[in-house]
């Protein structure tokens, strides 16, 4: 086969002769030009394919676990239900699926307020169920993407509980502020007038620590870079 780079050069300069190394010039008949273009396209695809990551041409399907497939009749979708449908997803051409959060959570924000990043919420199943899902997905060639939420956690997370004591090493895991002293009332006002996306003030006072913390969504407390580097 004529090397791709030589074909590319031929197409670029638009001549009808192609000089190959250690050979005489080859006269290109007019009808061969169309075939050369096709050959160039094939060669380009083959050469470029090795440089393409799987996600660049994946057929991606998002799954919202609680409403996708219920395997035990409790009215809530679960991991076993997802596993049972992987074959169908493969059949319709899906090569990767993105799961909305399945980690332990009080579900104030439908799983985006995570209280334990290392376990599966019981409404979806167990770690064994997750392992079984991964095994089945791998056998089918379907990749699994988890919705990872490093920006914040639930205020029921053990990290938040530990952060309430500034002396135990978790002081800077969350965004804390002592607020501004109100000279008229003697109380401490929020450090800013930011408004939450769920309405109401953005900052939340914590009575135990006597500081304001910065929630992101509902009961989800904003994590700092230190917590992400240390535990994620």
From TrEMBL:
GO terms for biological process: carbohydrate metabolic process. It comes from the Eukaryota. The keyword Ribosomal protein does not apply. Pfam families: Alpha-amylase. GO terms for molecular function: alpha-1,4-glucosidase activity. The keyword Signal applies. Keywords: Signal. Its EC number is 3.2.1.20. SUPFAM superfamilies: (Trans)glycosidases. InterPro entries: GH (IPR017853), GH13_cat_dom (IPR006047), O16G_dom_2 (IPR045857). Signal peptide: none annotated. Residues 62-232 form the Glycosyl hydrolase family 13 catalytic domain. It catalyses: Hydrolysis of terminal, non-reducing (1->4)-linked alpha-D-glucose residues with release of alpha-D-glucose. PANTHER family: ALPHA-AMYLASE FAMILY MEMBER (PTHR10357), MALTASE A2-RELATED (PTHR10357:SF234). This is alpha-glucosidase. It comes from Drosophila simulans (Fruit fly). The gene is Dsim\GD11472.
């Amino acid at each position: 086969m004529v090397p791709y780079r030589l074909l590319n050069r031929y197409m670029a300069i638009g001549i009808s002769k192609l000089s190959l190394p250690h050979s005489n010039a080859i006269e290109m008949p007019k009808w061969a030009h169309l075939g050369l273009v096709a050959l160039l396209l094939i060669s380009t695809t083959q050469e470029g394919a090795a440089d393409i990551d799987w996600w660049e041409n994946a057929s991606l399907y998002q799954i919202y676990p609680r409403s996708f497939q219920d395997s035990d009749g409790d009215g809530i979708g679960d991991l076993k239900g997802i596993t049972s449908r992987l074959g169908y997803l493969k059949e319709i051409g899906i090569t990767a699926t993105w799961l909305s959060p399945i980690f332990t959570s009080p579900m104030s924000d439908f799983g985006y307020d995570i209280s334990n990043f290392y376990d599966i919420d019981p409404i979806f199943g167990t770690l064994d169920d997750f392992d079984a899902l991964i095994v089945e997905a791998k056998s089918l060639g379907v990749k699994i993407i988890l919705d990872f939420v490093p920006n914040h956690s639930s205020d029921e997370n053990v990290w938040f509980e530990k952060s309430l004591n500034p002396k135990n090493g978790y002081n800077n895991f969350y965004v804390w502020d002592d607020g501004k002293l109100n000279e008229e009332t003697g109380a401490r006002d929020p450090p800013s007038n930011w408004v939450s996306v769920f309405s109401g003030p953005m900052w939340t006072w914590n009575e135990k620590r006597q500081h304001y913390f910065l929630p992101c969504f509902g009961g989800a407390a904003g994590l700092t870079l230190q917590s992400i580097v240390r535990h994620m």
